[in-house]
Automatic annotation (TrEMBL):
The keyword 4Fe-4S does not apply. Residues 88-171 form the GHMP kinase N-terminal domain. It comes from the Bacteria. InterPro entries: GHMP_kinase_C_dom, GHMP_kinase_C_sf, GHMP_kinase_N_dom, Mev_gal_kin, Ribosomal_Su5_D2-typ_SF, Ribsml_uS5_D2-typ_fold_subgr. This is Mevalonate kinase. It comes from Nocardia vulneris.
């Protein structure tokens, strides 16, 4: 499935960040979720064959080391075990296409802050696999890309639903349910303000905590799963109809449920309260939680500016404003 030329050319790949509008954590158990891409935050990867000192490829790798870009060595003959989800995904890709020759260096430049629920690990893995496929001059089918990235994501999340891998390649909002994906549309004027608490969260720790919590209270778990699915379905209808006020209420209700299952924190709750106080239609944490980012819904640009200012005053270390609908 790949060409066996001695000197494969350098390959390049990229992907973008995402937010989860509704459904995080419950999506791990087959419930639906809605994600929205953040194309302004991108991860880029370049793949080079292990090169002789002094060659352009070796210089690029040295530059990466000096500039502290993320550098990953992938050896197809290793067992593929690594604490680095990009290496796991890249190694899985090599295995899936039957590549067993020399090792590859991957240089990653990622503008998506890690540990913030914005999909950095999935975007880096997708960018890396795309770069690797171009480098090895092999056909990259959506199935192989997804399977390789999921290996890395399972390592990063414990058990990954697959939503991040889908959202970091999506062109607009998407509905995700048990691996099934459907593009959604949303009102052109509405905005999402994304705010960073500055606290690094761990998706793996959060997913593990939720699993323990749900297993210890089976009846309550059932109620949470049913409520989460209902909120997400209503949100999709509101999104399609452009009912931002109603959509916002569902988001805030989802945040309350995420608080109950223990994945929010003081900083997230303060930002959610500040956004609602400033007139946002709704607000919630996004992604794994235990730190990371929250989102607030605004009817239009003007309201987004007011909400964004309030979030900055309430301690957000970074904010972004993105369209809710397709671009
Ligand atoms: O990568 P994060 O922090 O956006 O988390 C992804 C969403 C979870 O539902 C928490 C995990 C998953 O695999 O779906």
């Amino acid at each position: 499935m790949y060409r066996t030329t001695q000197e494969h050319r350098a390959g390049a790949g990229s992907a973008h960040g995402k937010i989860i509008l509704l459904g995080e954590h419950m999506v791990v158990y087959g419930m639906p979720a809605i994600a929205v891409p953040m194309p302004e935050l991108r991860a880029h990867a370049t793949a080079y064959g292990r090169a002789a000192a002094g060659s352009p490829a070796a210089d690029a790798v040295l530059d990466a080391q000096r500039s502290r870009s993320h550098l990953v060595h992938v050896d197809p003959r290793s067992d593929g075990r690594s604490a680095d989800s990009v290496e796991v995904a890249a190694h899985a890709f090599m295995r899936l296409v039957g590549y067993t020759e020399r090792g590859v260096d991957l240089v990653l430049r990622c503008a998506i802050p890690p540990g913030r629920g914005l999909g950095a690990s999935a975007a880096c893995a997708v960018a890396a696999v795309r770069a690797l496929a171009e480098h090895l001059e092999c056909t990259l089918t959506p199935e192989i890309l997804h399977r390789a990235v999921q290996h890395g994501e399972d390592m990063a999340h414990g058990t990954a639903s697959g939503i991040d891998a889908v959202a970091c390649m999506a062109a607009g909002p998407v509905w995700f349910e048990s691996g099934w994906v459907q593009p959604l549309s949303g009102p052109a004027r509405a905005r999402i303000v994304v705010a960073d608490t500055g606290i690094t969260g761990s998706t793996k720790a959060a997913v593990t905590q939720v699993r323990t919590q749900l297993a210890s209270e089976i009846n309550q778990a059932r109620t949470h799963l049913i409520n989460a699915a209902a909120l997400t379905r209503m949100a999709a209808e509101d999104l399609a109809a452009g009912r931002i006020a109603e959509l916002g209420k569902h988001c805030t209700a989802f945040h309350a449920m995420l608080c109950e299952i223990g994945v929010s924190c003081g900083a997230l709750d303060r930002l959610v309260a500040a956004a609602i106080e400033a007139g946002a239609a709704g607000a919630k944490l996004t992604g794994g939680g235990l730190g990371g980012c929250m989102i607030a819904l605004a009817e239009d640009d003007e309201q987004a500016v007011t909400v964004r200012t309030a979030l900055q005053q309430a301690g957000a270390v970074r904010t972004w404003t993105i369209p809710l609908g397709r671009r």
